[in-house]
Amino acid sequence: MIPDRPAPPKWAERFLEWYCDPRLLEDLQGDLHERFMLRTKSMSALRAKLLYIRDVFVFLKPYTFRRKNQVSSFLFMFRNYSYSSSRNLMRSKLHTGLIVFGLTISISGFILISMYVSDELKYDRHYDKAERIFQITTELQSETSNSHVVWTDAYLGHRLKELYPEVEEVVELLKLQGKITVQYKDKIFSEDLLYRAERTYFRIFSHSWIAGDPSTALTNPKSIVITQKIAKKYFGEELPLNKVLTVSHENFIVTGIIRDLPGHTDLKFDALLSTDNEYLAETNFWCLTFILFRDVKDANGFGQKLSEVAKKYMEPEAAKMGGNVAYQMESLPSVHFGKKKLFDTPKSSKSNIYVFSIIALFILLIACINYANLSIVQVAKRRTEAGVRKIMGALPSQLMKQYLFESFILSALSFILALGLTAFLMRFMNQLTEKELSLQELFTTSSLVIILFAILIIAFLAGSYPAILLSSTNPLHAFKGHLRIVSKSRIRNLLIVFQFTASITLMISSKIVFDQFSILTDTDPGFNKEQVLVVDVPKDTFLIKSLPLIQKEFSELAFVSGAALAGYNSIPTSDMNVDTYDVEYKGEYVAKAFNDISVDANYIKLLKIELKDGRELNQSEVETGNTSILVNESLVKMMEWENPLEQIIYENSNAFEIVGVVKDFHFNSLHKSIEPIIIHGNNNSPEKLMLKVDRVDFEKVVAMERVWNKYMDKTPFNFEFLDSYFNQQYKSEMTMRNLLWYFSGFTIVIACLGLFGLVAISTSIRIKEFAIRKVLGAGFLNIVFPIVKEFLLLVSIGAFLAVPLAWWFMSEWLSNFSYKTPLGISVFVLPILLTLVVALLAMMYHTIMATRINPIDSIKHE
Fold it and tell me: pTM, whole model, 2 decimals?
């Protein structure tokens, strides 16, 4: 029996093989083995092994490292992949151009939508304590109406702080209504984003300060904090601190300058004027209320405490008026997506965010599918190359790396071009969404990491399937011209169906949104809103006395056919005031809450609101504050009056006689049905002056401004068209319509590119079949029909799936409207027909080109 020969420790040998340069390994390993065997003859095996281990570590020196070879090997492979990829991409310019074009469009669309969604989700999250800040609102309920207003009574906030220790701080704000005149020396400005704020404001809301002390800025009476924009507008390069601004004839000292507020906030202001709770309670019972909890967990269950406060302090008074009051609470970051309230800022919709997020993913997925499908064409053309590489010893993994590297280059190039396209489209995007999006947001560290990760993901998703096909090529089949890319592959068909389902769903949704927006804007509101100028009336009581003279002189202008005054919240589209009246209902007087507006004698005639019964208000009644009123049809129907002109209604101790009934008109948007309205004749405190003009140009504006300045030389002449106010009600729908319209166009273009590539696949694979058919006498239709039938079937399946999907989704969206577009057959048929036409055009191009090839040229390669 031959005894076992001692051997060096295996782990030491493996360690040597791991770090040693392959060019030195064989010699070094042989010398160490020889030395080990000699040692075993003169010493114990254990000692020989220990010395072997020592020698392995002794040779652990820089010149023995294999790092240099690894780097050079990596650089060599990288250089080889780069040369090969650039050569292949340049060889097929059309294929490369289609892929880059499709990816560029899709990535640009994805970036634009992502920036829009990101901006929406950032609303009011920039405050340090945002998660602990909550807004309190009031819900007024009665038998006739359910009004949710953004305001609360001026005592609520401080009452909550006194009662509940979990409330750390509270602030109440009062927005100054209308255009406010602000004067600095001889400069006069008109502003509409001014608030009165308590001194606690900066203890709750954090801002970036340019000058001033946030702890004392609002503590002194008659102090004002302005934004950077206002500071530059009023003072230029002067230091604004301690300067005096005159706001509505009151002097305020500038005690602070803060940086401009970001666009993603609902609490927009240009200046904050100091005030206190006593002033708010005396001048206006309603204000905005924000509370700051000591801990965000304290908000859990606080709604019950709000109910107790409402029941104790507000319920008795509300019960006298035939209703009840409830307080609601929303965290600051969720306010932007909350339910629309009266006198509230414009809101967004969480459903819109989900819609656009899905659209962004669809655009990206469709682009990746197109990339994969278009790349399969190249795989078919490169089968011989793949076979030669395999015969020469290339491994499947190396072929996959090569193709994925090309995919990475195309994705990176597309990203660079997409950034340029995004920068070009950014201005149009901001116009569509009325935002201030900036490409600089993409160049933060986190954004760059996400972009790099996205490039890798797109390269992998788009290039993995073609890479697998290429690496699995059988050399023998490649040289014979056979490649296993089956035109009726289940995976490919599934991708095509998904692509067309997504595209057609977006197209149908765009059509429905477009039709619904047309319903909203084209439906007759029941009054004439065209060519009506709405002029801001100053709050100065002295100047208001001049309004009848101004109104008279405006009416005498040749191009002005009418002039009317409207009180607070009394022009169409405003959130109307709600008051409680005692009215006769089924033989007895009951308390009911109704919307009411205050107008002059010209209001009904100027807006051409149709009178159904009785008469209009006359000027003497308006000037004397007479108790004559008008009501609309909805109020008459609700109260079930047979003779409304015989009715008397009461508000407190005031009796009002109904002298006329107007036909129902949409004072507010078509999101909700028409509500009962009481129309008072009163011009003591007008907010707006409305002018009916035939056409507006520069000369006419100058003429009107001349009349205005004759009586109000220190008040700017500011006006807007009534129809612009009207369209602002549909801002959210307008944004959704515009974005869907444009990004549906993106998907159509990308889908066309995909279809172009898919038909190219089939025609390139079946080119010899077409040649044989042609030789055997087949006509053009016999050759084209199989391909047309195949793809039309896939488009039909996509349409079949898209119709119920779009119908379900858009039905949910339309449920938010009282007046909605019908989901008729044409809504679904037109987008499908458009898709079929585009598909046929793409298919016919390739099939015609394939049938025009000489059969001999196609068959001779066999």
Answer: 0.74
